[in-house]
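Bench notes, afternoon.
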Amino acid sequence: MKPVILVPIALWILSLGAAFLIGRGSNSSQSDRRTALDESRPSSLKRSSSRPTYGVKGVRNSETNLLPTAQTSRIIKNSTPEQAVTELAKLVDPVERARGFLELLETLEADQFLDVVAEFRALGITEQRMSEYGMLLHGWAKTDPKGALAYTMKNTGTPFARQAIMASWATDDPEAAIAFARANHEGTGAIPLLVGVIRGIAPLNLSRATDLLQDLPYGRERGDALQGILPLVMENGVSNALTWTAGIADPQLQSGAINYIMSGLAGSEPRHAAELLVTLDDKSAAARAADDVGGALARVDLEEAKIWSAGLDEDLRSQAIEGVIGHYASQDPAAASEWLASLPETADLDGAIRQFAWRSQRSEPQLAADWIGQIQSVERRNEMYNSVLSRWLRNDPVSAEQWIQTTPDLPEYVRGLPNRVR
């Protein structure tokens, strides 16, 4: 069991190192932050020849205990930056790696980052190396954000690197970062680089970040930006976070934000989420979150979740039941089936039945198939017949074919599934 525990702990420690570095880069005074956001400052390229400052050693020691070690210092002293980044990446101890990367960043000049980042990327960007990668990108953005962006836009296919650089740049010079993002976008759709800008600005000026968020059209970019800003919004509690959503003018964005907040709360405090859900004015957002809340509550107390979900008003009940049945069917399909059958016929149970069939088809394929016929939507019913029966036919063709032959009123295409699967 120990290796399973050590892996997430190692990743967490590496994240602390990256978070520390990003925090040092944006740890200016409140007056400096307001000035940075209210006035355009000279581009950070004007200081690209200077070495970035990440904090004095005494401060680093008191706040993070990430002082260099003899081994990391020796690697950096006796190697070129490109060799050092390779050797540091090979260190097994995640804390020592974080120390080494922080120490390396203190030594790099602006014109050295390109080769160092290229060397690091050549090692392969694994999940374990993402924190160090973020640290290097953050440091590069502090000295030459345009150069860093030019490299990543040419050499990377995912938005991680670009967003990390834009976030770092935006903490120092938000207006320059915003202008660059808008100037380097073609077409009328969302501006992808603004996602990173929003993440960088949010800790300094949440109102400005929210305005930029609303400028993004509906799509993946806006969802990414919303997810990036919400942890900051949630720091002051759920009530304040929901108050923040009230200031969002776009109803669709507002509903999405409420759903994210409620789903996040459900994961940590399911009972609180269940109590809060019924008080929300936005019933559409509440309904979208009810599935997550129901599932989270079921994992804590199944009986409580069953009573809670069945007693909700009609506009929330079906989604909450869907969340509960997903967990219930995974644990005990037969008992979940009995509970599903006991619910009022007036309830919209299509979603719950689909969830039940998905969750129970491995262990109880016949029970799953028996319920599909009660799905009211013809399209959804046919989808589930095709999915569940195809799987059953592959795993146990004799039993599946016998069920198809003896079950009345099945569509003709369902009766033809055995031949198609064969």
